[in-house]
UniProtKB/TrEMBL annotation:
CDD domains: alpha_hydroxyacid_oxid_FMN (cd02809). This is Dehydrogenase, FMN-dependent. FMN binds at residues 74-76, 103, 125, 153, 217, 239, 272-276, 295-296. The active site is at residue 241. GO terms for molecular function: FMN binding; oxidoreductase activity. Residues 1-345 form the FMN hydroxy acid dehydrogenase domain. One of its GO terms (cellular component) is cytoplasm. Its cofactor is FMN. Belongs to the FMN-dependent alpha-hydroxy acid dehydrogenase family.
């Protein structure tokens, strides 16, 4: 099976509830679809007669050189996709030099993920729960497990209006690491764990408590990007949460240029949502992103072939990205700029 076939095959392999949870978005799923389409609408503008015999796909994010710009997005409940779960995905990331982000809603103890991942790059995604004991434990696990950064997700005061989950009532079919009651959680219970009182005033405290750089995930506008700089974040992820929170919000691709302008190089900018091909990542970097997160494609690989499938998805993205640099006449990823893309009129 080719990685391109994983999405359709995962739909057959997974139960309807789990598949709807993984694949679905908020409302009419307009933003979910637009996330993919927005990258496709941006045209690449190549240069010719450039020596592209050697290419350099590496980028610098949070002060560290990384072999390519792909970061595995935090995704909850990976055991519902495959028994390899988060350890499988973390190993796939390590094998491909991708930074791995562990969801707060992990199915696997973060300390076990850290032990399995060895020296590979990993970040901890933090949800601030009403239960601060759970939240503090995740921060502690991040410190103990050599996680390099805390990715605080800021677009989830509570869960979005997700028709697929409302219809299926999907109850996660394993015990996630954080849970309130020891019993499986319905969508409404899961969504209500989050602390909707979280504000900008709370962010710096997490940096102090953890001693880790903070990345704010879920920023879509320049004013919030400026505030992220002011509260001391080391980076932001321009993201609409894979179209899962508020339907009809703008795509990461559309939001990126204004955010990059506002940030003006002071902190790192990542983007996610709908990145499906290596050339999508090249477009993101051309528009000023330092790296991209990839979500569902990795899950489909995991669902079909466990850790190997997730690794094959990442390998293909990296290969496509490398080939894009060559065919675009821009052999160094860090030289990508707006002259290599034409945005839709
Ligand atoms: C099944 C699923 C679970 C997710 N869980 C989390 C999560 O726990 N924390 C988080 O910050 N984002 C979560 N996200 C959002 C992703 O990190 C990411 O923003 C999004 O999936 C990127 O879009 P893509 O799937 O189109 O690549 C989840 C996304 C999916 C599809
Ligand atoms: C309450 C589950 C949080 C996981 C998540 O972020 C998502 O499903 O989008």
């Amino acid at each position: 099976m080719e990685p391109a076939d994983f999405e359709a095959r995962a739909a057959e392999l997974l139960g309807a509830g789990a598949h709807g949870y993984f694949a679905g978005g908020a409302g009419d799923e307009l933003t979910l679809r637009d996330n993919v389409e927005a990258w496709r609408r941006i045209a690449l503008a190549p240069r010719v007669l450039v020596d592209v015999s050697e290419r350099d796909t590496s980028v610098t994010v949070l002060g560290r050189r990384r072999p390519h710009p792909f970061v595995v997005a935090p995704m909850a409940y990976q055991r519902s996709a495959h028994e390899d779960a988060e350890i499988g995905t973390a190993r796939a990331a390590a094998a491909t030099g991708s930074t791995f982000v562990l969801s707060s809603q992990t199915s696997t103890d973060p300390r076990a993920v850290a032990a399995a991942g060895g020296a590979a790059d990993r970040w901890m995604q933090l949800y601030v729960f009403r239960d601060r004991g759970l939240t503090d434990d995740l921060v502690q696990a991040a410190r103990e497990g050599s996680f390099e950064a805390l990715v605080i997700t800021v677009d989830f005061p509570f869960g979005g209006w997700r028709d697929r989950d409302r219809r299926s009532g999907y109850v996660v079919d394993h015990a996630p690491y954080v849970q309130l009651s020891g019993t499986p959680l319905t969508p409404a219970e899961r969504h209500a764990m989050h602390d909707p009182t979280l504000t900008w005033d709370d962010i710096a405290g997490f940096g102090e408590a953890s001693g880790l750089p903070i990345v704010l995930k879920g920023v879509l506008g320049p004013a919030d990007a400026e505030r992220a700089v002011q509260v001391g974040a080391a980076g932001i992820v321009v993201s609409n949460h894979g179209g899962r929170q508020l339907d009809t919000v703008l795509s990461g691709a559309a939001a990126l240029p204004a955010v990059v302008d506002a940030v003006a190089g002071r902190i790192d900018v990542l983007v996610d949502g709908g990145v499906r091909r290596g050339w999508d990542a090249a477009k993101a970097l051309a528009l000023g992103a330092d790296a991209v997160m990839v979500g569902r494609p990795v899950l489909w690989g995991l669902a079909c072939e466990g850790s190997d499938g997730a690794r094959r998805v990442l390998e293909q993205l990296v290969t496509e990205f490398d080939s894009t640099l060559g065919l675009l006449g821009c052999p160094r990823a860090e030289d990508l700029d707006a002259s290599y893309v034409v945005a839709p009129a």
